[in-house]
Every structure is written in C-alpha cells, then in structure tokens.
Write a sequence for this structure.
C-alpha cells in the first residue's frame, strides 16, 4: 500500500487549528512554528477556538518553554481574543 502524500499548508502569519483533531494539534503547531521561523515571521497567530479549551491547552503547553517562542498571549479582541494565541518568535540567526 502506497503512503499518501503529505498535506502541504502554505505558511502564513496565522494557522487555524479547527481542521485538526486534538491528537494532531501538537505536531502541526510544532512544524508550523519551525516553518514560520524559517520564513522569518516575527509574530504568528494560532486560532484554536473558544470551545472546551482542549486545543488551547495543547497549544499553550507546547509554547511554554519552546526554543523558538519568545512570548505568547491571548490575541486582542479584534484578532480572536481568547480563541486565538499570538506568538512572538525569537529572531532567526
């Protein structure tokens, strides 16, 4: 059986996580952060939704202490409020 081709997601300054299952969120965010940093983004927004808070908890857990993350916080109201997290990335070397 042939392996399916990996899904290619364009790297933009925001990633909507609604399309991913909670089990996939950590790996998706990890890869996204690496690619966003490589693309020299200084800030990105992770849209996890307000719901029960499962995806938000997964995202926040991964961001805490991540070597590419300088800081993170709830997005301002006009950018999603507590349904999104704004991440400041460290400067590329």
């Amino acid at each position: 059986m042939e392996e399916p081709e990996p899904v290619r997601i364009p790297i933009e300054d925001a990633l909507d996580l609604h399309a991913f299952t909670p089990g996939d969120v950590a790996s998706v965010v990890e890869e996204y952060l690496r690619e966003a940093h490589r693309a020299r983004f200084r800030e990105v927004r992770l849209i996890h939704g307000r719901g029960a808070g499962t995806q938000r908890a997964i995202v926040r857990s991964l961001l805490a202490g991540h070597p590419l993350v300088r800081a993170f916080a709830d997005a301002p109201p006009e950018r999603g409020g507590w349904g999104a997290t704004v991440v400041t990335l460290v400067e590329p070397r």
